[in-house]
Write a structure and sequence with these properties.
The structure is a homodimer.
Chain A lengths: L7 E5 L2 H4 L8 E6 L16 H18 E11 L3 E2 L2 E2 L2 H11 L3 E10 L15 E8 L13 E2 L2 H8 L3 H10 L4 H10 L2 E2 L4 E4 L15 H10 L5 E4 L6 H9 L2 E6 L2 H12 L8
Parallel strand pairs in A: 1-12, 2-3, 2-11, 6-10, 11-12
Antiparallel strand pairs in A: 3-7, 4-5, 6-7, 8-9
Helix pairs in contact in A: 2-3, 7-8, 8-9
Chain B binds a DNA duplex through helix 5.
DNA sequence: GTTCCGCATGAATCGATAG
DNA sequence: ACTATCGATTCATGCGGAA
């Protein structure tokens, strides 16, 4: 097994300054949730919606430089409502990224099962966010088998009922390790997921407010990287992506401008509270 | 109760020609699923993505003219993949509509539980569509309580029919939206839904292929109109929206360019096969 | 009557083949 | 080189017939 000098690396500073110090074509996956327009005002100056694209584009250029040609860039973002309307800056950003050379390969939906409570006269609770998938080329890598999920209950039932020819037909379709996995397979036949992810938000931790639950980066890490691959988060925050990288044995480079977040992320990622593979 | 001369009206022709004949400020809800770019080639000529906005804008202007100031315009649309990338024409359309005077109030997500099967090396199955909500003013009407409780006779019947494993399966499947309504029906408290709707597409009918299931327009009809209100669908297709209007006692004006669809819609909407409230 | 089971079907997408 | 057509892939759903 290859030994890496800095499997988990945390860099303090503005990613506009730090990214240029990273080598080109070195990152397998960029997974990040940037500060939304008009949010986190004290860090990146609370970029107003009108300047958001202009601010983000140079960063996106650097991200494209450090990403391997086979790599993926997953951007978690959702526009807020301003004066009763949805902002347009996310849509403008998608167009600008495509204009600048990125391929807009897919838009995944994160359905937040336990969305923030509330009631307003003119809208319901917002229960979804975008996960925009950009790539450098049409030949990016994707490990689909690693995120297979159990079928719906009705299908499982049907499989359990399989008899004779049906069973044989299914068996022939399944290439690998049928005999060994037979007992497992009966209970939970696995199928490929869709581009809609159903995940609850994490609300238990009082010390920090992560933008997303661990299972969100976990899903994309499994889908787009292998153990030992390098994952980059230029807006690390409290370091959830890095935490998952440690657990899944991926290398990680996180960049964060706010010192308090740096300290928090170090504590979360380097502490021994989780069983580690390192 | 007020009597209307044409509670259910079907008009044949290109909506670019027909819409100007309708009175201004008369419609309470526009619910429609326009032909997607490069789809339905034989009807609107298969508008290529590049010309889509240009084609749609004059129609949108007419729609804004006929809509009441308090009304809503719900647009069901989803971009396809072209050469491995998602098309941008839907995003451009949103911007153009806003530019032309519409307020982009919300984007609902329709999660298609039974999305079309398939497997490809670079993407998963597409299991969601956009339901873009536009309004003329910030003071539009919204009957939120009406989507907490299923009122349609068919829904009550369906729930009453549920028993044993069917009931269990349905319970396990529920999230927000419709599923929640049904599962809560038997005793739990009612809650407001979110902006994510979980609905399966209807695929059982052999005679016609509706773009969306009845429960999709049903939800928005209940949310944005009252009985007696007028609903417009400028791209009627096989008339699913009109069918629901009849069942829910809303007035309906449907416009369709293709004669075969006109005939089919007439048969579906005016036949006596469904128990009617009229 | 219930419950169970088989089967057709759907705003899909890719890659190969053909004009 | 560019467009058009076609086969292969794959899964939740609801209907109708069977047990």
């Amino acid at each position: 097994m290859v030994e890496y000098e800095h499997p988990l690396q945390i860099l303090e500073g503005d990613c506009r300054d730090v990214l240029p110090t990273l080598p080109a074509d070195s990152v397998d996956l960029i997974f990040t949730s940037p500060p939304y327009a008009d949010s986190r005002k004290k860090t990146y100056g609370g970029i107003p919606p009108k300047q958001y694209v202009e601010w983000f584009l140079p960063i996106a250029d650097e991200l494209r430089r450090v990403l391997k040609p086979s790599g993926s860039f997953v951007l978690n973002i959702k526009e807020k409502t301003v004066n009763g309307e949805r902002s347009l800056y996310v849509l403008e950003l998608i167009q600008a990224l495509k204009q600048s050379g990125w391929l807009w390969t897919e838009e995944f939906i994160w359905h937040k099962k336990n969305s923030f409570p509330g009631k307003w006269p003119n809208r319901f609770r917002d229960a979804w966010e975008r996960l925009l998938h950009f790539t450098k080329s049409r030949r990016f890598v994707m490990y689909q088998d690693s995120v297979k999920i159990p079928t719906a209950a009705s299908t499982i039932k049907r499989v359990a009922r399989l008899s004779g020819s049906d069973w044989q037909r299914r068996k022939n379709r399944t290439q690998s390790g049928f005999g060994a996995n037979q007992s497992h397979w009966l209970g939970k036949e696995l199928v490929y997921p869709t581009n809609v992810l159903h995940l609850a938000t994490e609300c238990g931790n009082k010390k920090h407010s992560a933008a997303f639950p661990e299972r969100l980066p976990e899903w994309f890490l499994k889908l787009f990287t292998l153990p030992g691959d390098l994952v980059l988060d230029p807006f690390m925050g409290s370091g959830t992506t890095g935490l998952v990288c440690r657990r899944l044995n991926r290398r990680f480079t996180g960049i964060e401008i706010l010192h308090d977040y740096i300290a928090l992320a170090r504590e979360r990622i380097f502490s021994n509270q989780h069983p580690s593979l390192f």
